[in-house]
């Protein structure tokens, strides 16, 4: 008997299947996995009253955060638009007049709030792109994401340097997490491990560098293109909660690197008052409770780490 091909479209973004769109009127639903899908642009760009640029590694937490925020500020319901791509690429978009092109579509959405690693936020304040203060709100740790069952038998960071272990890693050129990853690789195996993962293996094809790791790392692992990839622990927790064939290997504290997430108002923000409300909300007990579902922890108000 002939076995018909089985297409598992649930592996492909948007993993929320449209549920993370805060727009009230959605019109024609036309989302085709792998073909027509824009999972990191959320809401309606028609007359938004709050636009948030978010370093995309907590895209999964944004929908419940926005829902809770709208409950507190019903006048903004359905009027929030947010983008969840890597923080370096968000900066590039700001340098290009807040204009994006994805596929054949080009649109402009000027941000009110920029959120990324605290260090990146402070750099942009110093550059005059954002307005002080930088607001720290949560912290996150790294983990090793692997396919379910861990077929590569990964036990720790040192294994990532072994010949034949295929990696999917964030690109240091624009993905902020790469800075913390490089630090952890040096802690676990010195400069030699960092060079092997981000130098030798990139050149020989054993390391795939991502454009957007929070989408590509789990997807490539599920497609069998890699054995492991370092991500934020929250991202692995989300994939497991979503029922995807993904697992993770914890990184011991002595090798791990913690990041502090921060946000600030954008200079000349179109909706500064709404932006300030969002910044206040990020440090609220309501927001923290949502973040904690995915392994985040509260950041102290005087946090100075990255």
UniProtKB/TrEMBL annotation:
One of its GO terms (biological process) is molybdate ion transport. InterPro entries: ModA/WtpA. It holds the Pfam family SBP_bac_11. One of its GO terms (molecular function) is molybdate ion binding. PANTHER family: MOLYBDATE-BINDING PERIPLASMIC PROTEIN (PTHR30632), SULFATE-BINDING PROTEIN (PTHR30632:SF0). This is Sulfate-binding protein.
């Amino acid at each position: 008997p002939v076995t018909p091909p089985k297409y598992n479209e649930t592996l492909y973004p948007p993993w929320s299947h449209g549920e993370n769109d805060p727009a009230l009127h959605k019109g024609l639903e036309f989302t085709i996995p792998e073909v027509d899908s824009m999972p990191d642009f959320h809401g309606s760009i028609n007359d938004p009253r709050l636009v948030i640029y978010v370093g995309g590694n907590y895209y999964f937490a944004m929908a419940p955060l926005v829902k809770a925020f709208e409950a507190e500020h019903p006048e903004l319901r359905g009027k929030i638009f947010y983008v969840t791509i890597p923080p370096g690429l968000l900066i590039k978009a700001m340098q290009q007049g807040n204009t994006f092109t994805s596929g054949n579509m080009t649109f402009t959405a000027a941000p009110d709030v920029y959120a990324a690693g605290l260090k990146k936020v402070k750099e942009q304040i110093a550059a005059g792109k954002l307005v002080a203060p930088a607001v720290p709100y949560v912290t996150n740790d790294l983990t090793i994401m692997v396919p379910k069952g861990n077929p590569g038998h990964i036990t720790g960071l040192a294994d990532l340097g072994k010949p034949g272990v295929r990696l999917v890693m964030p690109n240091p050129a624009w993905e902020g997490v790469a800075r913390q990853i490089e630090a952890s690789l040096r802690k676990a195996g010195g400069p030699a491990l960092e060079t092997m993962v981000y130098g030798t293996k990139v050149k020989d094809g054993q390391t795939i560098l991502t454009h957007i790791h929070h989408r590509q790392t789990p997807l490539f692992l599920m497609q069998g293109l890699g054995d492991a990839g370092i991500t934020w622990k929250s991202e692995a927790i989300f994939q497991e909660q979503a029922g995807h064939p993904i697992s993770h290997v914890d990184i011991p504290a002595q090798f791990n690197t913690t990041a502090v997430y921060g946000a600030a108002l954008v200079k000349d923000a179109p909706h500064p008052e709404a932006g300030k409300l969002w910044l206040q909300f990020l440090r609220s007990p309501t927001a923290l409770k949502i973040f904690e579902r995915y392994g985040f922890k509260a950041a102290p108000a005087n946090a100075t780490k990255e």
